[in-house]
Amino acid sequence: MKRLACLVLTAAFLILQVLCLAPPANAATQQVMMRDYAYGPAALTVRAGDTVTWMQHDQAPHDVVTTSAPVAFRSPQLSAGQSWSYTFTKPGTYSYYCSVHPDMRATVTVLAAETPTKHPSPTPSKQTTARPTASSPPSSTSPPTSSSAAPVSETSAAAAPVTQEAAATGSSLDPMLLVAGVVTAVAVLCLLLVGSRPGG
């Protein structure tokens, strides 16, 4: 019975290791240096899922505290040679400063995670044909040629971000994560079968 419990715990550990340690598909790591009482770069652009690491090179302590952000965060005070990392998950502009030295200010702009551009292109054309009918009441007050051209261009420009948001919220699995899951499942099954043998 102890052997079976040990095998189950080992299997659970392997599953957790695969799930927790698998890196996101396109995640990147950026660095911001704290040097000479300034953040460098002062403006950084990353994608959702990317990690930013702040490296402290000054003798005076510094920290990272958001002043305006979609998600607030605060680092511990960092001494020379220390670093702190944060993974951005929500798009938006994150303004931050050092609470010890309030003149130290910078921003991180987080863009939505990259999505395939092949799938969103057919959808805007469908939405473009649906939108002019909704904007037809304003066209009755204006000449038909000028008003029908303007809503179509506005609609196609507005439809693209909506489509990209829908694609960003759709779940896509990394193929390597699927393979790791299958391998782990087979290993767990084998461990359970070996552990449940009466003579073992």
Write the layout of secondary structure elements.
Blueprint: H1 2-21, E1 29-35, E2 38-40, E3 43-47, E4 51-56, E5 65-68, E6 83-87, E7 92-97, E8 105-111, H2 122-134, H3 136-141, H4 144-169, H5 175-195
Parallel strand pairs: 1-4, 3-8
Antiparallel strand pairs: 1-2, 4-6, 5-7, 7-8
Helix pairs in contact: 1-5, 2-4
Notes on the structure:
The protein has helices at 2-21, 122-134, 136-141, 144-169, 175-195, and strands at 29-35, 38-40, 43-47, 51-56, 65-68, 83-87, 92-97, 105-111. It has five helices and eight strands; from the N terminus they run H-E-E-E-E-E-E-E-E-H-H-H-H. Mean pLDDT is 72; it is low at 120-171. The protein is elongated and about 70 Å long. With 200 residues, the chain is an alpha/beta fold. Strand 1 (29-35) and strand 2 (38-40) form a beta hairpin. The N and C termini lie close together (10 Å).
Rg over CA atoms, rounded to whole Å, is 26 Å
DSSP helical segment count: 5
Report the major sheet. Answer: 4 strands, mixed
Helix content: 40-55%
Structure classification: alpha/beta
**Average pLDDT over all residues:** 72
Beta percentage is: 15-25%
